[in-house]
Amino acid sequence: MSDEKKLPTFIEVVEVGPRDGFQNLQSFIPTPIKIKIIRKMIMSGIKAMELTSFVHPGAIPQMADAAEVVRLIHRDYPDKGFRSIALVPNLFGAKKAHAAGIREVSYVISASEKHNLANINRTHEQSLADLRTIIAELPELEIRLDIATAFGCPFQGPVELDMVKGMIDRGLSLGAKKIILCDTIGVANPTQVLQIVVDVQSSFPGLPLGLHLHDTRGMGLANVLAGLEGGITTFESSVGGLGGCPFAPGAAGNIATEDLVNMVHAMGIKTGIDLEKYMQAVQSVKEEIQTNLSSHMAYAKQYEGIS
Amino acid sequence: MSDEKKLPTFIEVVEVGPRDGFQNLQSFIPTPIKIKIIRKMIMSGIKAMELTSFVHPGAIPQMADAAEVVRLIHRDYPDKGFRSIALVPNLFGAKKAHAAGIREVSYVISASEKHNLANINRTHEQSLADLRTIIAELPELEIRLDIATAFGCPFQGPVELDMVKGMIDRGLSLGAKKIILCDTIGVANPTQVLQIVVDVQSSFPGLPLGLHLHDTRGMGLANVLAGLEGGITTFESSVGGLGGCPFAPGAAGNIATEDLVNMVHAMGIKTGIDLEKYMQAVQSVKEEIQTNLSSHMAYAKQYEGIS
Fold this sequence. Notes:
The structure is a homodimer.
Chain A: E1 12-15, H1 17-21, H2 31-44, E2 48-53, H3 66-76, E3 83-87, H4 91-99, E4 104-110, H5 113-120, H6 124-137, E5 142-148, H7 161-174, E6 178-182, H8 190-203, E7 209-212, H9 220-229, E8 234-237, H10 257-266, H11 275-288
Parallel strand pairs in A: 1-2, 1-8, 2-3, 3-4, 4-5, 5-6, 6-7, 7-8
Helix pairs in contact in A: 2-3, 2-11, 8-9
């Protein structure tokens, strides 16, 4: 945000609350409540959303209604103005997502192999082999490749940028269309974010690149600022900041969509989202799911004339 | 934080928890507990701290032990390596602070006259007249002038930069030595922060200028980043993020010192503070005062090899 460098004038906010947020909650959220919250977000102007994930319901019971959630949202919002996305961990999930009508999926590989093994019990090669099969068998699916632990790993510590770039290279060569760099444990700092996004964009010119940031150490929006300075225009965020550990105040997970939108709007950057309407979704999350959110806007007093 | 612009390599962290944080807590914190927390912060490398405020004990009973706090800390840390600061609202408080051995005081005037009236029941002219008297009667006191509501006012909304600069000009001409721009209600955004600090520094070359930021809307550290980009090297922050509304999760007040220090250290900027030792003070705040802090670092899991 120097004087010399222009920030983007518009960013795409990809809402991940119904997937990354909900899946971290223990109690099953009844499908109608999920739909109610998703609808409020779409009504506020959210144009892309991870609606759910197609995982084994034994592993994540919260996502057992994945196909039903997609069906209900596609029934209500059939047009092209809204893009539904689902996370899939493997070919089986990708097939189920495809059958449910999903055409854009997030597929996760950790930059750190140790984390990949701990998280999904696969080596890098196994994960990439699965990705290759998904793309071969379901060519209609657009793949956004989430590179987890891109800024640091809970098991190995620092992650080499060459590892991240190697994984991007492999993913793109297999056919992934977008790359999302994920700060899985919220350890990224602004200097690092700017450095990495500048380097990655210079190594892969024209690559659609997004950031998935957490606010675990309070650096979430500072890292957004660094990303904006690096020219990033796609950010993933979660309603209410859902997705961290919901029971420890301050131990935030994903950056809250309302915090992100509030900041960039105040900076004169457009999102297409009506924040006042979006706050109705936040209110529903407070009322229907939990009241202890890591969102800031959910609790901040509003003043007339100040955005 | 553009490629073209160098960030500072060192910042001064001014701890305001014992003043701005404690004064927002209803239950009186026994003096020995205050001293214990202050000592831990000094031991971690904090070199400047608002220890207390000299206000009417009827108005803020929490600060009734102001002189005793100063006495005990000055007894233990008499050398020049540590600077004790106190807030004073008027000449009476300034005299008491001076008598207690304080030589640097924070004096607050709101850029918004409406806020000044609501906060301390004085017009701008009355506040400035008091400042003139304090400086005349107590020339030994170094004045840091806190400009409250510099980024927005709860009563009037946006605050004109000319109002802020006018107040700085008046304060300096009366003899104030440092200016702290305060985002009293946490509405500042990074674009605004950069714009204002660049403008103020250009209007007042060489002015010692600091920022007092709140994290109410999650922009606290993003605003720090903007300040760093604008060349600011003095930041005020509070242990545990104390100072907001302590009972609403997320409704953060001051930026937490541990969040600030963690971020700038990760960015390669020095503070002279040993964060691990500082976290012992945070731990004491959790144990002795309250467990529901707006700090992020107070709850974030730590990983080996990642700062």
